[in-house]
Amino acid sequence: QVQLVESGGGLVQAGGSLRLSCAASGRTYSIYAMAWFRQAPGKEREFVASISWGGGVPYYTDSVKGRFTISRDNAKNTVYLQMTSLKPEDTAAYYCAAALSLRPLSSVRLDFYDYWGQGTQVTVSS
Q1: Sequence-distant (≥ 6) Cβ neighbours of residue 39 within 8 angstroms
Q2: Which tens digits make up the pLDDT trace of 55-97?
Q3: Of the candidates 33, 41, 36, 45, which has an alpha carbon nearest to the alpha carbon of residue 6?
Q4: In angstroms, rounded to a whole number, what is the distance separating the alpha carbons of residues 76 and 59?
Q5: How do 92-99 and 115-116 pair as beta strands?
Q6: CA distance 4 to 63
Q7: Other Cβ atoms within 10 Å of 120 Cβ, number
Q8: Half-sphere exposure of 27 (CA within 13 A, CB side)
């Protein structure tokens, strides 16, 4: 079992910054990759960024590339999402996810991941 707890969400004005954290506990030695997804009201949950646990190789969706940075601290079993130049369209509940294996699926798919956090709300005002 892996438990994920997100933190760091809040209300910020357009152009501002937030840093999200996701702390993992349990079978953390089994983690292959971690990712951030987001879901706005009335929309489907979408991929934001991912990072491999061993090599720390990041991957971003085009809409956040250059503005968001994903990173990880293996010693703390924590993944971060540094969000800068925030836009109102970034408003969503942000979810942390963990994958325990490399599946024959794209890592941007929800079913690539085995565990999910409860989410943290990010609201960007204009």
Answers
A1: 45, 46, 92, 93, 95, 119
A2: 999 999 999 999 999 999 989 999 999 999 999 999 999 999 9
A3: 36
A4: 21
A5: antiparallel
A6: 25
A7: 20
A8: 11
